[in-house]
Amino acid sequence: MQTHRLRKHADYQLVYKSGRKQFAKHIGYFYALRPPLGPNGKPTRSDTVGPRIGLTVPKALGNAVIRNRIKRRMREVVRHALPLLTSPADVILHPRRSTLDLDFLALQREVSVIFRAVQAALDRAASLKQP
Length: 131
Fold this sequence. Notes:
By secondary structure, this protein is an alpha+beta fold. The chain has helices at residues 9-18, 64-81, 104-129, and strands spanning 20-23, 27-33, 52-55, 89-95. It has a single domain (9-129), classed as Ribosomal Protein S5, domain 2 (2-Layer Sandwich), CATH 3.30.230. The chain contains three helices and four strands; from the N terminus they run H-E-E-E-H-E-H. The protein has a four-stranded mixed β-sheet, with helices on both faces. Strand 3, helix 2 (64-81) and strand 4 (89-95) form a beta-alpha-beta unit. It is globular.
């Protein structure tokens, strides 16, 4: 079974350090193409072939109940939009508090737009690297 979750703190830090930061209306996001080799020259420890998605919901958004509700909504939206990403990329979504009150379809649309933009950016970067 393949998992598309970003789990390790070091992986989050790598995306923050080497990735790009963008903003949508209700969600900030970071993304980076996952290199086949890690910084030590060894293959990366990820068994996931496709994208990995991480969520960060800070304590500033509310208590644990509110943060968990935001995470549950985001996980469901990501599950539906995941096929839009095909590159081996790591994406971190950083929702704002407004995602809690946002209509589910609007949230789904926003995440779909984000994933399409990330995929397009990765495709452009790949086409520039090829001779």
